[in-house]
Fold these 2 entries.
Entry 1:
Amino acid sequence: MLSVIIPTLNAEKNLPQTLSALIPGVVSGLIKEVVVSDGGSVDQTCEIAESTGCRCVSGPPGRGAQLAKGARAARGDWLLFLHADTVLSPGWDEEVSNYMSQGYAAAHAGVFRFALDDFRPQARRLETMVALRCWVLALPYGDQGLLMHRSLYDRTGGYAELPLMEDVDLIRRIGRKRLIYFRSTAQTSATRYISDGYVRRPLRNLFCLSLFFLRVPPRLIARLYG
């Protein structure tokens, strides 16, 4: 029923945790396959993926292109897109299974609540800011996961092969009225926020988002993003 698609690039450190959280979905029969769309890793990412039963497809780096390639390779009627450093909370599979059984589900897209694996107050403040962004702007990012039926994915055009903002681009095409927010969380690694700073990184993200809305080419934004 469900194909999970994970874009990777040198993700050997975080990928095992991400895959471990999917085990309940595999055991219950909810997950049909896990497709790891790799962008040319030079570490053990593909070896880890294949040793745990995932199907690994390879191509040029770039998350938009990798997500699109993974979706083309997937065989399930439902698609769940996850980042390689995102861990779904216990019970996610039951909630998703229940959601998928609803008559309206195929016409909507579901995302998880954003969380960070950092205990400090800065992380809680950022989680609150993300929740506010989702409520006001209806703009969940890719680190919150994205679940949608294949028919809706195809109808909205799927992921564009952009070097950056591929998640915002697709979410805008899906639209506020077709977004569903799950109670389960998608806990993402806080490493980048700790490294770049809990103020500097969100401000940089906001700056890049503003440039995207001003129709600055994503390839130029990607150079600024680093």
Entry 2:
Amino acid sequence: MNLKDCYNFDDFRKLAKKKLPSPIFHYIDGGSDDEATLKRNTDSFNNCDLVPNVLTDVSNVDLSTTVLGVKINSPLFLSATAMHRLYFHEGERATARAAEKMGTMFGISTMATTSIEEIGKLTKGPKLFQLYIHKDRGLTDNLIDRCKQAGFNSMCLTVDTVVAGNRERDHRTGFSTPPKLTLGSLLSFALHPEWSLNYLFRRKFRLENIIHMTEKGSNIDKSIMDYINEQFDPSMNWRDAEYCVQKWGGPFALKGVMSVEDAKRAVDIGCSAIMISNHGGRQLDGSRAPFDQLAEIVDAVGDKIEVILDGGVRRGTHVLKALALGAKACSFGKGYLFALGAGGQQGVESMLQKMHDEIKRDMILMGCRSVKELNRSKIVYRK
């Protein structure tokens, strides 16, 4: 199996599983506790059906939308995810190049293995920086200032990770960052020599955006969950979020909003957007799926703030359903990370192209010429 055999999310996942050592693959693939929310994130899209119209002129279909102040070619962009160097030796550089080539937005994490400055120089495409608030508030200010200097378009603050979720797969596989050889993982690394050699002899694994502030940036001798629990600030509150909005001074999103109450508060503190997200089912297991919360949140604040759906997106029809309920755009993480692990930049480009083609084909079949024509009349919930 290779990239030409990958037609959908599951295919890219299977190829990534073949190419990545087991602890690395399962870090992408897993969720917290019983992984009920992880599963629900995608299953929730099946509770409703699209209602197409026929005999409309769909010879020209426009998929573009504007989100967080920038126009993107498709209503799907790359959510910020950590440590791309683990999945492919070029790391975030490969992902950023793919996003720019495909005309969509790329999100880079505080926990990236490529620096803010390097990404700023590498790509002229729309760039979103995803911020975590550390106990060292000087680090938070430093990250925001560096993003301004590097020409990032927008910023989001992740608000659902003040403590790490219980990711039991990582305990079982012995996942750590940087990866360590253990009795449980030794065989898997040995059976994936291409990945292991690239990891050992190419660019060193470092959390480039925080290495200058803490030794934890280059030598996390525990799991990423331990890092979160040790370094992220559990006292983070709405005043801190408002401070970040004001300090950034540009398009700003809160990522991890799941309730109407919090969506309204995001409006009050001056956010440009909210990302309805449960961190890909990796934090609070048993929580609602983002899609299940979408309509209620859009009804409450959709005329005041951009609403972005993040979580569970696997198909073009998932994007259409979210847009029909009022989302401005969707973002995804697992899908493009599997593609990155499966084939680097080429893999991410292939995944994005297939999702773009799906969305366009589905729009034509819906009788919609632009994403603006997707509305509540196009979707019906099953009774």
